Amino acid sequence: MPDGTMRPTALRAPYHHGGLEAALIAAARAIAERDGPDGVSLRAVARAAGVSQAAPYHHFADKDALLAAVAAEGFRELRAALLARAEAAGGDPFERLRALAAGYVGFARARPALFRLMETPAFQRAGAYRALDAARQKSYLPLADAVAECLPGASRAKRVNACAAVWSLAHGMAILASDGRLGGLVDLSDLDKATDALIRQLNIAAAPGA
Amino acid sequence: MPDGTMRPTALRAPYHHGGLEAALIAAARAIAERDGPDGVSLRAVARAAGVSQAAPYHHFADKDALLAAVAAEGFRELRAALLARAEAAGGDPFERLRALAAGYVGFARARPALFRLMETPAFQRAGAYRALDAARQKSYLPLADAVAECLPGASRAKRVNACAAVWSLAHGMAILASDGRLGGLVDLSDLDKATDALIRQLNIAAAPGA
Question: How many A/B residue pairs have CB atoms within 8 Å?
Fold first, then answer.
């Protein structure tokens, strides 16, 4: 506390500066992952974080703003996961592209509730939540970069179509796999292998002649 | 009415046999398409259908059962839309496959709220709602059939991977396009053309050598 005294409220709200905001986001995420987004309320989040009912309103206008912050955190984690996969894949752009697709699908399947929250239709409209917009846009760049490296010298139209196809396939597989719906067709127990098999169905995903 | 008399209740509930069930499904669908699934309650549906508050419970155990019936109707309409596209596409299996993908994406983009409802994660678990299961499974068959016709003599593994890839790509594009998210990459104003361009990125989607 600024004045160094112990006040009763300090026992319930031991947060300052960014600490409270992060704690609220963590509490909202835990509730959303356990009960779904509908289980989240600013009241329940305040209780879970051990702060006063009024405290969340210092940081979030309403429940949707708090959920948007959770979604933004999800997109930042997705980007980090993709970059880690790309780095581990090494120098071949086709291997990197397949690793990125597997990373995308694996992220969704490992965190289905978070991925669904990130997918909330209202959160896709640019301009509604600035930090979320930025995190979402940046999360797609590793895929777009890998596609561009697989198609050096290709026309913009060709690159764009390939990029949209890779993203659509990875996104669809992420949704279907996280719901367990592809299980009748594909062995999801080795998700990297399953994603590799599907992404290889795209012309772009293997080196010419490979 | 069977006996030809006008009874007071007949003014509020002019339904009999399957009529009431269909009216409740239609009312629930209209509310879900306007306000989202969260706006649906058996009370609101009863009011919209002009029947007593108790009437919905004769047909549906709870709100989820009613929404599952709306989702099942959606999958039956999806199947009908796909079959119509397949028939219009004519005899070439590759053209038919691309037309089916375009039909899938077009269905989702034309009815985003219904498609999102059909996508409800809890509705994907087999066994929860029998009629929904059947309608969902049947809706995928036109795509699977077209893939098989594009790959005569192929191994089962090859057919299955191609089928899962087509479905994943179409599904991902359907979700992304219905949220408007692919708009930055692809011109969604001609959705058939856009889908055709993406589906052609798959090895399977064009005749060998085409």
Answer: 109
Nearest by CB to residue A172, choosing from B171, B186, B201, is: B171
pTM of the model: 0.88
Residue-wise pLDDT tens digits, A67-114: 999 999 999 999 999 999 999 998 899 999 999 999 999 999 999 999
Do B16-60 and B71-205 come out as alike in CATH topology?
A: no
Q: Could you give the ipTM of this predicted complex?
A: 0.87
In chain B, where the domains are located: 16-60, 71-205
CATH class of domain segment(s) B16-60: mainly alpha
Instruction: Identify the CATH number of the domain defined by range B71-205.
Output: 1.10.357.10
Domain A70-205 classified CATH 1.10.357.10? yes
Do the Cβ atoms of A124 and B203 come within 8 Å? Answer: no
Three-state secondary structure string covering chain B: CCCCCCCHHHHHCCCCCHHHHHHHHHHHHHHHHHHCHHHCCHHHHHHHHCCCCCHHHHCCCCHHHHHHHHHHHHHHHHHHHHHHHHHHHCCCHHHHHHHHHHHHHHHHHHCHHHHHHHCCHHHHCCCCCHHHHHHHHHHHHHHHHHHHHHCCCCCHHHHHHHHHHHHHHHHHHHHHHHCCHHHHCCCCCCHHHHHHHHHCCEHHHCCCCC
CATH 1.10.760 matches A15-60: no
